[in-house]
Amino acid sequence: MSGFYLPNGLPTPSSGPDGLSQPYWDGTREKKLRIQKCNGCGSWQWGPEWICHRCHSFDLSWQEIQGKGRIYSYQRPHHPVHTALNGHGPYIAVLVELPDYGNIRMVGNLLGDPLQTVTIGAAVEAVFEPHDDAKPPYTLVQWKTV
Fold this sequence. Notes:
146 residues; mainly beta; 1 helix; 5% helix
């Protein structure tokens, strides 16, 4: 095991060919959580899009936010969804709601014992997990209870 929450060998995340999510990934490398905000109507959104989900404006910017939210839902996968996860389960994937940012929701792993009791509504905060030796290097956003 590499000392990371999940084992090595999983696909390296990327911003995709259009580069739309690059500001998010650049922020994670700086231990900053960034999401989009519409400069037209002021609404927050996640995942990255070229237009506002609410008013359809193309005038979006990336804003740094506090990585604090609450568990909206979760799943505890026991079976591998990728060959790198063979023998590594269960783990906990959470859907985190960010009430200070229009109640948008983000998915990530919940750190800690994979058999821990998970409480809907529990407070969580973002944790940055750098993978500096990867080619190219990247940082994942994980979640921990507070």
